[in-house]
Amino acid sequence: VHPLSAIAWTESGSVRILDQTLLPGEERYLDLATVDAVAEAISMLRVRGAPLIGIAGAMGATLAARGPNGSAVRLEDVLAGCDRLQSTRPTAVNLAWGLERMRRRARASAAQGADLLPALTAEANAIWEEDRLMCQRIGEAGLRLIQDGSTVLTHCNAGALATGGIGTALAPVYLAHQAGRGVKVVADETRPLLQGSRLTAWELLRAGIPVTVIADNMAASRLRRGDISCVIVGADRIAANGDVANKIGTYGVALAARAHGVPFYVAAPTSTFDFATANGTAIPIEERRADEVRSVHGKPVAAPGAAVWNPAFDVTPAELLTGYITDQGLLERDQLSTLIRQKS
Ligand code: MRU
């Protein structure tokens, strides 16, 4: 439904990414040939979004299995590459989940004396293809929330740019648009790095879906106006009790949605659920560099000398959610325990 591809293999087996830090001004692709180059791209948010960094990490791990001039590599080198990639970002569980699959696959093929590269390439492709399918199912599960003429408010970017498919939060929007329902999106700009105004608005407009950008401090007023049908956001990690880590600012939107009686949904694939983490307080929250807050596109916007706090994510308590839009279907808040039982 959506031709955009944020990641690809090159013919020589490198990882090609769309450099998302340059959007919307420039659509530039980077070919990454080493584990360090992929790690840098993940750390700098050139490639970003929980499912997509899971895929990028897995594809990056294959680069650790390519010895000089096609020579064989040792299992330890591949495992070290996985550790390097995992050290880049702590909050999205998809990265750790994807790399754990790569480690397991590497160990299994090493135990059989098999060549690591083809096995790891197959595993990375499986992770990518599964994500594409999960996005499609999330879209189908959430479609009934979007009637003709609906307006959906979203925060950050949980679209095609953040996944291997049509996105998570935006998947129902794409399918509703495809089904001919007039759907509009209100996108929070999402400071400090502007994923909403730069990325969500860019990919929706590319698909012909009307989008209105608002600064983050306008969301509560917009929710009070009464023209938002529902809020749909993505997730970086969902704990066993249903608490959700997502882009900083999500919590405030959830509080405002509750105050104004607007349904608030979190869309996420199975790979984002972390049943080993009991609740939101145990989710590690990435803190990023102060200059992301001090400046916008290199221009200072804070008084010199001001201290900065820059958490990249916050936790929305499960009580504030209406439900979860997952590849296993649309779950009301209290149905999450069924999914947990199935998975554990
Ligand atoms: O820091 P980012 O841009 O990687 O943060 C992205 C988000 O918070 C998304 O909402 C989340 O990863 C879900 S993407 C389908």
Produce a short descriptive summary.
The chain is α/β, with parallel strands linked by helices and 344 residues long. The chain has helices at residues 35-43, 50-63, 75-86, 93-111, 116-142, 171-178, 195-206, 219-225, 250-259, 291-294, 336-343, and strands spanning 7-9, 15-18, 29-32, 151-154, 184-188, 211-214, 230-233, 237-239, 244-247, 264-268, 273-274, 295-296, 299-300, 313-316, 323-326, 329-332.
Note down, in words, how this protein is organized:
The protein is of the alpha/beta class. It is built from eleven helices and 16 strands. It has helices at 35-43, 50-63, 75-86, 93-111, 116-142, 171-178, 195-206, 219-225, 250-259, 291-294, 336-343, and strands at residues 7-9, 15-18, 29-32, 151-154, 184-188, 211-214, 230-233, 237-239, 244-247, 264-268, 273-274, 295-296, 299-300, 313-316, 323-326, 329-332. The strands form four sheets. Strands 6-5-4-7-10-15-16 form a seven-stranded mixed β-sheet, with helices on both faces. A hairpin with a 2-residue loop joins strand 15 (323-326) and strand 16 (329-332). The longest helix is centred in the middle third of the chain and has 27 residues, at 116-142. It is globular and about 65 Å long. The mean pLDDT is 96. The protein binds 5-S-methyl-1-O-phosphono-5-thio-D-ribulose. 5-S-methyl-1-O-phosphono-5-thio-D-ribulose binds at residues 45, 48-51, 92, 156, 158, 162-163, 168, 195, 234-236, 246-247, 312.
